[in-house]
């Protein structure tokens, strides 16, 4: 995990008393959720072999925050309503088998230190550099002593969390991280606590975040091919989270980090909503009987499936995942007629795993990314993730968000009342605009993916040529430069003393002087 340079203002994160919303005036209502003891049935879905586990629901929002009484700063951070520090949810098991850790040298190093010392704590780490701070903690680049393994360590002051009623948010993030096992989501290597601090040891992403990377592009926007790469991986991340009954609610370029291999990692789960979900397999028509698929030979036959022998990126030519299928070694003369092979294709199963019953009344997110149903206080569910996915796609393509106004209040009114418009430049494909139109429908029940989730989006023509099964084999648009750890300033203090400095300097939710610390990258 890496922290990120942010440039957009926080949305009422620190307000202790809710005040009137400029658009909605009704009193906030408690979130509707299933019982916290309800568990979905465990299931496994292969997407580079991620393990799907059940997620308990939790009533985690208690009050709404004022979206209008926001301090102006150079940061665009997220916010949520304050919550009680009482947790009504059972913890996820952190000891379940996670296939993606099998060949991870960092995981092996952590296990070796645990076996040697009996327990893991701050004394086993050297904090090399403060990467930045967020609403509930400070993040450091940390080296596991006696190894060459580096991690991102999130250090949270427990007393500060308690005084600001953020304990449940920290617990929610930890429990979500404990259950994740997916190529594009964080690995939680360890969690430990001292008398003063709660620490999460996660993956360090040296490539920074997509917001910073976008700022470095010519015109401050990505090429459409690069956008397709990044949003495809984000889409699979959201699909997996929804299968677990997790509504992310905080998608934005600042929260999409870039690993050392150029692939992405979604980060920051303290605003996520957990609920029950019942994944179901739905039979779909064959390719020949589906007009949308019939006209495109590039759709993957089984978009969420991968053979174990093909998990390693070396198994295929790197560019195959984002190249149209018609570039084949066989000529058209050597191929069988379309009608000869089409009739042999049986109906393909589709996994529908939208937590459609999730409802929350909380006011969470970033102004420019808030869905209309959140702004209007109508209650929201998993469809907010597809709205934010549309805003995210728009920003990567055009270098700005579609509803940004002169201020936060104007932005919220634009989200609710202004139609979607596209700038004349840069020029993007019709498919890209069409996908954005489908996602940025103001009524959630009419929004693309409302019923069938990520499957609907995967089948959109914008993703023509994407081999979903082998997406990890695709060549990223940009590979980060390796970090020269030897050139970093040596640690000036032991880990426990360094963490104490973080706590004393306001590293947790520091908002003094109306400024936020900007995050550094290598």
From TrEMBL:
Protein name in the entry: non-specific serine/threonine protein kinase
SUPFAM superfamilies: Protein kinase-like (PK-like) (SSF56112)
Annotated Low complexity bias: 494-503
Entry EC no(s): 2.7.11.1
Annotated organism of origin: Phtheirospermum japonicum
Molecular function terms, GO-annotated: ATP binding; protein serine/threonine kinase activity
Stretches for region Disordered: 1-99, 328-349, 494-513
Family membership noted in the UniProt record: Belongs to the protein kinase superfamily. AGC Ser/Thr protein kinase family.
Record keywords: ATP-binding, Kinase, Nucleotide-binding, Serine/threonine-protein kinase, Transferase
Segments forming domain Protein kinase: 125-463
Entry keyword annotation includes Glycoprotein: no
Ranges of compositional bias, category Polar residues: 1-24, 66-96
EC main group: transferase
Record's catalysed reaction(s): L-seryl-[protein] + ATP = O-phospho-L-seryl-[protein] + ADP + H(+); L-threonyl-[protein] + ATP = O-phospho-L-threonyl-[protein] + ADP + H(+)
Any Pfam family: Pkinase
UniProt key word Nucleotide-binding: yes
């Amino acid at each position: 995990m890496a922290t990120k340079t942010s440039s957009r203002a926080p949305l009422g994160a620190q307000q202790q008393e809710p005040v009137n919303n400029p658009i909605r005036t009704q009193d906030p209502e408690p979130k509707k959720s299933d019982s916290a003891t309800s568990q979905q049935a465990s299931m496994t879905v292969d997407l580079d072999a991620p393990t799907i586990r059940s997620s308990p629901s939790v009533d985690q929002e208690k009050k709404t925050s004022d979206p209008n009484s926001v301090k102006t700063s150079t940061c665009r951070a997220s916010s949520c309503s304050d919550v009680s520090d009482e947790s009504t949810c059972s913890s996820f098991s952190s000891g379940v088998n996670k296939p993606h850790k099998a060949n991870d040298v960092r995981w092996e190093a952590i296990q070796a230190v645990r076996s040697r010392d009996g327990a893991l704590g701050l004394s086993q780490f050297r904090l090399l550099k403060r990467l930045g701070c967020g609403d509930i903690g400070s993040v450091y680049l940390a080296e596991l002593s006696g190894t060459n393994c580096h991690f991102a360590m999130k250090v949270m002051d427990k007393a500060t969390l308690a005084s600001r009623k953020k304990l449940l948010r920290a617990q929610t993030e930890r429990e979500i991280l404990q259950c994740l096992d997916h190529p594009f989501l964080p690995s939680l290597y360890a969690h430990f606590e001292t008398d003063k601090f709660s620490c999460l040891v996660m993956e360090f992403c040296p490539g920074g975040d997509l917001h910073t990377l976008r700022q470095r592009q010519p015109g401050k926007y990505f090429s459409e091919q690069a956008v397709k790469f990044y949003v495809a991986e984000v889409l699979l991340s959201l699909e997996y989270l929804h299968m677990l009954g997790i509504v992310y609610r905080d998608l934005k370029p600042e929260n999409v980090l870039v690993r050392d291999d150029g692939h992405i990692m979604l980060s920051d789960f303290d605003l996520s909503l957990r609920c029950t979900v019942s994944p179901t397999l739905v039979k779909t028509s064959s390719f020949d009987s589906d007009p949308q698929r019939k006209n495109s030979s590039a759709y993957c036959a089984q978009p969420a499936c991968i053979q174990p022998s093909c998990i390693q990126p070396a198994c295929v030519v790197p560019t195959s995942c984002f190249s149209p299928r018609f570039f084949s070694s066989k000529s058209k003369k050597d191929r069988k007629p379309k009608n000869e092979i089409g009739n042999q294709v049986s109906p393909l199963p589709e996994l529908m795993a939208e937590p459609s019953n999730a409802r929350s009344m909380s006011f969470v997110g970033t102004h420019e990314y808030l869905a209309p149903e959140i702004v209007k206080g109508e209650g929201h569910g998993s469809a907010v993730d597809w709205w934010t996915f549309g805003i995210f796609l728009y920003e990567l393509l055009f270098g700005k968000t579609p509803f940004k106004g002169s201020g936060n209040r104007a932005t919220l009114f634009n989200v609710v009342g202004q139609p979607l418009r596209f700038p004349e430049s840069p020029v993007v494909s019709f498919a890209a605009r069409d996908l954005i139109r489908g996602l940025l429908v103001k009524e959630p029940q009419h929004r693309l993916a409302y019923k069938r989730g990520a499957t609907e989006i995967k089948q959109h023509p914008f993703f023509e040529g994407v081999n979903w099964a082998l997406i990890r084999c695709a060549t990223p648009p940009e590979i980060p430069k390796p970090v020269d750890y030897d050139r970093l300033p040596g640690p000036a203090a032991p880990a426990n003393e360094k963490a104490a400095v973080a706590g004393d300097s306001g590293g947790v939710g520091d908002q003094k002087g109306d400024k936020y610390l900007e995050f550094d990258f290598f």
